[in-house]
Specification:
Blueprint (H helix, E strand, L loop, with lengths): L7 E6 L2 H12 L17 E3 L5 E6 L1 H9 L5 E5 H7 L4 E6 L5 E8 H7 L6 E6 L2 H9 L4 E6 L6 H4 L5 E6 L3 H5 L2 E10 L1 E6 H6 L1 H18 L1
Parallel strand pairs: 1-3, 1-4, 7-8, 7-9
Antiparallel strand pairs: 2-3, 4-11, 5-11, 6-9, 6-10
């Protein structure tokens, strides 16, 4: 068995994506230690059935950061996160075909009904994706003033913080429950296997082997 410091580390996002990605990883031969499934465990790094690979569980945005800075050599991240941060150190060789949703612009449903397609030159937006929002509206000649929020974004229009939001949408139920309507889709989102580029150069056989094993599982499911 490799020494702990020599093991590859894969960063996984907590939440819905974790539940979707684990069946893929298990079919690729990655079975985490029992503490991984223990809701009372405060452990964050876990050994696996693969002697050269450990798992860590982090927030969805942080998975890409751990990989970009080389603290983890592999990871899973939505292309929304990759679009927002645009890390040059990250290589995303494989669409895992899970975590499907979209980045969308939304506003109060009654305002959308009255707006009749009007496009202002300046717009205030609540979002956890300020870079994506600025690029999207900037390409249309609209100046986007972005208010960064990390949650409860649908509350912002109702409480007068702004009129528009840019957020992840899966079914649209949360938007409707908060009186919002989707205006447009910025990008379709799915989760990707991501790799640290320098690590791939220094450990090509190990990392390349995992890419191909996971690729085979994804292709088998399609």
């Amino acid at each position: 068995m490799s020494a702990t410091g020599d093991r590859l580390i894969m960063a996984l996002p907590n939440g819905r994506i974790l539940a979707e990605v684990m069946p893929l990883l298990r079919r690729a031969g990655i079975e985490p230690e029992p503490a991984f499934e223990d809701p009372d465990s405060r452990q964050l790094r876990f050994s696996t059935s693969a002697p050269d690979l450990d798992l860590i569980r982090v927030r969805s945005f942080d998975a890409a950061t751990f990989v970009a800075f080389g603290a983890a050599q592999l990871g899973v991240a939505g292309n929304d996160v990759l679009m927002e941060f645009d890390y040059s150190e990250i290589y995303a060789p494989l669409d895992l075909n899970i975590g499907h949703c979209r980045i969308a612009v939304a506003a109060p449903a009654d305002w959308v009904a009255r707006a009749d397609g009007a496009r202002p030159s300046h717009i205030r937006i609540a979002t956890k994706y300020p870079e994506i929002a600025r690029r999207h509206f900037g390409a249309r000649g609209v100046q986007a003033e972005c208010i960064k929020l990390n949650g409860a974004i649908e509350l912002a229009p109702r409480l007068g913080l702004c009129r528009h939001i840019v957020d992840l949408v899966q079914t649209g139920a949360t938007l409707r429950a908060n009186g919002l309507a989707e205006i447009e889709c910025i990008a379709e989102v799915s989760s990707r296997l991501i790799v640290n580029r320098p690590a791939l150069k220094t450990r090509p056989e190990e990392i390349g082997g995992w890419i191909e094993r996971i690729r085979a599982v994804v292709e088998e499911r399609c």
